[in-house]
Amino acid sequence: MKISREQIEHVANLARLNLTEEEKQRFTTDMEAIITFADQLNELDIKEIEPTAHVIPIQNVFRKDEAKPSFDRDALLANAPSKADGCFSVPKVVE
Amino acid sequence: MQLYQKSAHELRDLLLHKEVSSKDIVKAYLDRIKTVDEKVQAYVTLCEEGALKQAEEVDAKRVAGEELGALAGIPMALKDNICTEGVKTTCASKMLHNFVPPYSATVAKKLSKAGTILLGKLNMDEFAMGSSTENSYVQKTKNPWNLERVPGGSSGGSAAAVAADEAVFTLGSDTGGSIRQPAHCCGVVGMKPTYGAVSRFGLVAFASSLDQIGPLTKDVEDMALVMNEIIGHDPYDSTSAPVGYPDYTKDLYRGVKGMKVALPQEYFGKGINPDVQAIVMAAAKKLESMGAILEEVSLPMTQYALPAYYLISSAEASSNLARYDGVKYGLRAEQYRDLLDLYKQTRDEGFGTEVKRRIMLGTYALSSGYYDAYYKKAQQVRTLIKNEFENVFGTYDLILTPTAPTTAFKIGEKTDNPLEMYMHDICTVPINIAGLPALSMPGGFDQTGLPVGVQFVAKALGEEKILQAAFALEQELQIKSQRPLL
After folding, report:
1. In this structure, what CATH number is given to the domain that contains residue A32?
2. Is the four-CA dihedral A52, A56, A60, A63 of positive or negative sign?
3. Is B341 touching A (CB cutoff 8 A)?
4. Is B367 among the catalytic positions?
């Protein structure tokens, strides 16, 4: 399976990664090898097989919708790289 | 015998008879860490003051005659992807180098309630992605048996710490073998419980449909003791199984008489080192001599487990790791043009090569036009693998296999070839795919003196049978007194 430079750049953008030139080249080679390895799944006839997402049959786990003590705002903001007025702070999003 | 060489159950007895205090034990371990961790480099954070304080508290309770659990006063350590309130939890990543969680993982809370003492946090492959702990942003942990070799991974710090007597026991996490493979490399006991049996609340997520927390211990009895403390339903983890769990110490001595043990031929084929193979077969013979019934079986889907695993785990990782954006916690790049560039620059600087590689693969496998061809197909193959195991467990109590194809490899030996590195997980990955419980225990040593693990697998929630067989085999092998010289 060939992977083009455009594909790598497209996927890197989806993944929100600024890759260096060296990384782009390296990941192109690596991903080609890994995808080729993964392509052996094509040997199997699985058209009729249901996919398994979770191995234990637990579904629709609900709880009562009741108010419970939550975290202190300052405790949660303690790790923020940038904060202002009790909020996370980011660069301007809309002009 | 030094205090730090003793198992949890031996220390428990000494504490019960008031022959030592918890503070004595903690001090012995802190001294041990100071002596050997320079060489082993298992710890990324040490909680010296906190540990001594906790020990004093447990000692005071004991003096006051309070009823205490089996592990009260026993020092342990946690893999650095298990959140600990007020104690840095970095996942050995630059991305979280300064992250101090505002809450503790359920397992950390449970162990604290049981009176165990946190010595510190342990090195790992960044975000648990790797098989050698070489992907750590912090340091390279060494194998205590041979300092030129890797301790395995991703819970390499957790395994090395137990092997080097730097903790009585530790917790790790296992997504594709990350507890069992390092346990094999370092000659300790490591268990991945059934998916859903131990809460993952507070475990930094890698691949949510595969991740499982489990213990690494000096022997099988300790494993049963630690399992008793951490297992159980947790409303904070919606994948947690709301069922009753047994006391694992109760029937530990039952033996293997009449147990039906399957040897799947696919785990003994090409690529498996002859020394490893011989040790696992010798273990099988021992079990037979103790009354187990051994038969060969076939699990032909085994070869598809590894490719399915890399698609599923990378896809889930790419989604789970999307949260690291430089906004709420962790690293933020210093230079950026706008919000989008802040994300991209932070993620480029914060993640190491292996993490980026898997995010790329996972994003590709989930991207428009490829979802059916990769992620969905892998989940369909998962069904086939799961069914195949269920079939075998219709007839057999346990499966016995090697834990890994070779003993611990040299540092740097596989870092340039991701696929070769992935191959070291070939015997452990299928178990995660099927969500089953499995344990690796020392079965012997290869010709160069490196430990070799044997792996027991059971049906879902079949931990008790695994522990019974492992305990019986451990008694018969009599090798647990062999420790690395540091």
Report:
1. 1.10.20.60
2. negative
3. yes
4. no
